[in-house]
Structures are given as C-alpha cells and as structure tokens.
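User: Hi! Is it possible to get a structure for several chains at once, not just one? Here's what I have:
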Amino acid sequence: MNTLILGGLAVGIIFGFALQRGRFCMNSAFRDIITLEDFTLLKSVGAAILVSMLGFTIMSQTGAITLNPKPLFWGANMVGGFIFGIGMVLAGGCASGITYRVGEGMVGSLVAVIGLATAGTLTAMGFLKPIKDFLQSSTKIVESEGVNMTLANWLGLPHATVAYSIIALAVILWWALGLKNEDIRLGNKSWTKRIFKSSWNWWATGVVIGIVEMIAYISSALAGRNYPLGITAGWITIVKVGLPGVEASMNWVAWLVIGIIAGAAIAALIADEFKIRVPKGGVLLQIFIGSLLMGFGAVTSGGCNVTHILSGIPMLSLGSLLGGLFIVLGAWVTAWWMFVRPMQS
Amino acid sequence: MTDETTITKTVDVRGEICPYPDMKTMVALKKMKQGEVLEVLMDYPLSIERIPRSLKKKKHNLLSVVQIEGPDHRLLIEAYGLK
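Assistant: Yes, the chains can be modeled jointly so their relative placement is included. Here is the combined structure:
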C-alpha cells in the first residue's frame, strides 16, 4: 500500500474537526439566504474560496502544485448541479455536511451518505452511467487539446491576474460594504475554549478551511491524485472496495472521508455535542431520496459542492463555476418550494 | 427557571434535520400573540446558534437558552406578535 494515501486520513481529521466547529455546511449557506435571511455561513464559504484561491495561485506560481481545473461540459454541469442542489435540500446537508454529521451521531446523515454513495456508484459505473456519459460527451468544450476551460484562459488573461483581481475586488467590496456591520472581535475567551468548546466564527472557519484546502492539495498530489478536497469520489471508492468482483483499493480521497467522520466525532465529543439522533420515518425517506439525487447529480456534473465550489472555483474552472451556480439554483428552487412557500400561506 | 414564566406552547424539534428546527420554531412564533412564551427543545448545534439571529430579525425576545444534557437545549422565547 502507498502510505502517502494516509495523508488523506490526516487531512480529513483536521477538515472534519473544522467542519464541526464551524457548522460549515453549504446547504445551509445557500438555503439560509432565502429561508432565514441569514448570511453567516455564506460568508464562511466566501472566505474559504478566497483563501484557497490565493493559496492555490501562489502555490502554482512557486511550482508547489500544478493546477488541475475540472473540465467544462455545460449540459452535464447544469443538469447534474441542479439535481444535486435539489437533493441536498431534501437530504438536509451538502456532501461535506452529511459526512461530518455522521461523526456527530446523526443517523439521518448516515442514511444520506449511503444514498449518495449508492447513486454515485450507479452513475459512475452502473445503469445510470450512459446518461452521465451522454450529457458529458455531447456538451464538452475544451480550451485546447488536454487544457480545460477556466475563467482566465476564456478571457485570454494570465491565471494569476484573474485570481488576484477577484480576491482584491472581493476584499475591497467587503471592506466598503460589509465591515461596518461586522463584529469580528475574538472576545476574551481562552484559546482552548475558543478552539474546542465554542463554535468558530464565520471568518475563522473560512480561513481554516482555505488552509486545509492548500494542505490537501499537496498531500493528495504526493499520493498521486492531483486535486484538493472532494467527497463523493471518496464514498464511491469505499463502495467499490466493498463490492465483490470489483477491483478497487482505498485511495487518498477515500481515507479523507473516513478522516472527516473521525475529526467531526472528536470535535463533537470534546464539545459535548455528540448524540445519536434518529429522525422520523418519513423524514428518513425524504433524506434518502435527496441523497440519491445528490449522488447522481455529483457524478454527472463532475463534482459535488466540495469538488466544484470549494476546490474548483478557486482554480477558476468554468465547469466548476457553472456546476456550482446550478447547485445553488437547485437548492433555492427547492428551499423556496419546501420552506418559504408554506410559510407565506 | 420557569417559576415566573408561563409557557404557552412547546415545540420539540429534537432529532430533526436542518432546517426544520428553525422553521418550526419560526412558524410557531408567527401564530402566537405578543408576550406569549414558546418553549423549544432542540439538539441541533447549528440551529441553537442560528435561532438567536433569526429571532432578532423578527423582533422576538429570546428569554433563555439552557443546556439540558449534551447537545440538548431548552430555549424560551417571548413572541413579538404580529397579529
């Protein structure tokens, strides 16, 4: 066994710890805007993307990593992303959200992980594969042979110029518009309490997750997988390893998801938040259906919320930008239907 | 703790998934009159932290948040009353 794949386990433990402490869930981040008019987690996601974008760009300029943006297949990105977005609202969590909550003892999330892994595997290699293959191959656009479309090569500008401009623009906008309404002070708690007992504030969570992305990129590349964080592929690998007659072995991203559960469980136990929680039968069915949609959507679109939004957008991949946008749209339509509309009547 | 507060209604959202704890709390408050007190039992960490922000926006008054055991919390909320 290549011991470098165990780097995935170590990165996963840190990632899982940060997800649990920061309550970092992209389903909530996007959905809360329209259901609760709450932007806290969205700001966390934004901070994580910007820190990763800065880190990846510097690391790529210094030769520490080779950027590997996901391909653009617009039809598959749009359809898969939209279906994934619907699924995550039904399942009550994005791919990383359901994974870390298994470590908090949430049985509903365990059901969701099973559904995601099952439908993901069926789409990657089972009876749903032809649909995915058709959508991907019929709508694929590349910059040139072997070079995937990014915002930078689409605009004809150097990667670093585009990345640094986006970061600068975001920081200036936040400085001008957002900062005055923010309380970003840390308070006078002890560091132990701050890290292990209190939940992290939005910017701390975002920065830590951005740094985890950078460490993940190096660790994963060392193990022969040139991409930072992902979730769905890890679950699919675990299913393949368990399937009789399928040749597969544990890899970096499979160890990553195991690590996330362990890290979240450690965080939850220390903070006294671990508890086995079982939702009612009807809700379990809703979660399972949602997670099946997530599995199909993620593999069709070429990535889940982590692969596209957290890892792909910082690399400026057009496929990830489009996939991410349609995840958000799918989530909004579903959240409006399920939560906003009933509250209005 | 409850000696001086009369609880009008109780919502038990323990075990519920995101965002039902928040939505059920907000829906219950919407139907209550000004000054009535809602008791909420919840065990979902994100909601326990997010609810105070939502209450502030709708001008409901969070009276207390008490940890029962582990992630189980008991919230007392005084409704603002839109009716």
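Chain A has a mean pLDDT of 94. The longest strand of chain A covers residues 140-144.

User: Great, thank you!
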